[in-house]
Amino acid sequence: MDFGIEGRTALVCAASKGLGRGCAMALAGEGVNLVINARNAGPLEETAEEIRDRTGVEVTAVAGDITTEAGRAMVLAACPRPDILVNNAGGPPVGDFRDWDNEVWMAALNANMLTPIALIRATVDGMIGRKFGRIVNITSSAVKAPIDILGLSNGARAGLTGFVAGIARKTVKDNVTINNLLPGAFDTDRLRHNIRATAEKAGRDFEDQLAARRDLVPAGRFGDPVEFGQACAYLCSAQAGYVTGQNFLIDGGAYPGTF
Q: Quick one: pLDDT at residue 10?
């Protein structure tokens, strides 16, 4: 299927690896030119070069911390008129809520709620004026099924979800959609880091802990960032103009509910 977005421009955050990289790759495969961002210049440029070689699209790599005003200013200077915005940032640390002071909470809220809102604010009116826009926020399956040790993520990402629900119905009449992708257990550095931390705390072998986590997924495997990116590309397509304010759970069947 031709997604009808060839020649568009996308801004993809946290795109050097993991789910952000998967989204960037999928969009580039549809002929979308990219501005990609991550904190570390080396891995980011490696990803940019690989995308250029594979797809031939234009890729601009902007290294910087998207959770800061300075970082956002650099990215928006490189991409002032994106047609597509993919919001993404690393999740906050796991732990016990009793150990989190106000500073820790504010860092989580800034990264996973306030930064996406700031980028939406900076780009949505231009999209409305051009009568095309696709905004996809990468959140977490924890928004739908909270995980006790992910309290920071539960709270910050749920806040973003509520905000999106309030504005997504205001922009769709101008062909600007805003949706959320909720990943479950995908094979990323983040997943392995969290599992390693859990294994060390429990005194268990990492591979055993990894297998135990995998066994909890009805699909019998972890998700592939490539398939996550393909879902993102669909939400950014011309065909998805009638889809807004939705939360797409991609978790291999782990969530047990009907709705």
A: 98
- 36: nearest Cα among 86, 73, 80: 86
**Gap between the Cα atoms of 253 and 240, Å rounded:** 23
Contact 43, 66 (CB under 8 A): no
In order of 9, 11, 29, 59, 130, the CA distances from 62 in angstroms are: 15, 10, 20, 10, 25
Whole-model pTM: value is: 0.94
The amino acid at 208: D
Asked if 62 and 56 count as a contact pair (C-beta separation under 8 A), the reply is no
**Tokens describing residue 54:** 């594979």
- Provide the angle, in degrees to the nearest 10, between the axes of the packed helices 151-171 and 115-130: 20
Cβ atoms of residues 240 and 231 within 8 Å: no
Write the DSSP symbol of residue 144: T
Q: Alpha-carbon dihedral of residues 70, 156, 37, 190, nearest 10 degrees?
A: 130
Three-state DSSP at 182 gives strand
Question: Cα separations (Å) of 93 from 187, 194, 240?
Answer: 18, 9, 34
Of the pLDDT bands very low, low, confident and very high (cuts 50, 70, 90), residue 1 is confident
Helices (H) and strands (E) in the chain, counts: 9, 7
- List beta partners, residue 247: 180
| 185-195 per-position pLDDT tens digit | 999 988 898 89
For residues 133-147, average pLDDT: 94
